Amino acid sequence: MKNLKILVALLMVTVLLAGSLMMGCGGASSTKAAAPSTSAAAPSTSAAATSAAPATSAAATTSAVKAIEIKISTHFPATHATTTDLFAPFIEKLAAATEGRVTAKLYPAGQLGKETEEYDMVLKGTCEASLIVPTYNAGRFPLEDIFQLPFLIPGGANSAEGKAIRDMLYTKYLNQNQFSDMKVLWTSRFEPNVLHMVKKPVRTVSDMSGLMIGYPGGSLPAEFLTAFGASPEQVMAPDMYTSLERGMIDGQLMPLETELGFKLIDLTKYITTLNLGAGTAFVGLRMETWNSISAKDQAAITDICNNWAEDQNGKVLEGITTAATGACKGAGIEFISLSDADMAKLNELAQPVQTAWIAKMAAQGFPAQAMVDDVNAMLASK
Fold first, then answer.
1. pTM score over 0.85
2. What is the DSSP annotation of 318-375?
């Protein structure tokens, strides 16, 4: 009996233990059931982060777009009209049209380098853009000498006919043969060259005989002056005043506007008009810089250059010339025009130089004759 009681007690303990184990298993299942709920919340949080990420990335990209600042170099003084009436408003228009994505700062008076270094400064990255006068680089851009040929391309910085011819020559010949390593933003041409004389007037072709005449650059002006009997000496624009003042040269072959732009009016006594052509200039932009600008902003810049800057450039130079003419007459400077006979003599003396230039260019593989023919064809069709 005693053994029976012990057996019953053991059975009861076993039952109790089994119940406890079952309850323990049930509690573990509940805990594990809650885990999926926590795990389900995680994807929800992760999805929100993923959704927000593109917005954060876009904002970062927008803020990371850095404005491009273009350093523009020019040899013209800070007070010159091309500085105040061309480049200053161009810089404002540039910033406005690109909504500040492309800006510019001007460095006048050759602060970044000499006028003969302007082209290389752009290529090397000393500046991103510059006003480049090809004739200041003697022998480097020979096709540009076509603008120096007397009696060929009509003069006048703001001449519609001259602009059409210039655009044709740059687009068809010069850009691909001479200036392919940079972006030409716009072109211009100076007013016709005249003789600025300090002591000796030039009233006839023979009066040039033996005179030391300065010229800014290019090979053709020197050859023409030699053909006319003068002794040419290359003198850059910033050096004209000193050279004339010290008597290093008798006169200077340059556009009339330099009387004001470079203060030659303080020295000049006589001005002789010769119609000996005039060089061009263009604003060139570093190709790497151009390629870094968005297509949208490139289009905006092209619009400013084609529809405002080129015309404004011509108007500015024409305006300076008009002002200089009035100022010179007011200062008592004598204006001299050669007789028809002397102009015919100049033309006669100039023709062999032009013929030799065409032959020289042909020997170098340049289409100078085709350029001259195209110019004559445009003039004939007007």
1. no
2. HHHHHHHHHHHHHTTPEEEE--HHHHHHHHHHHHHHHHHHHHHHHHTT--HHHHHHHH
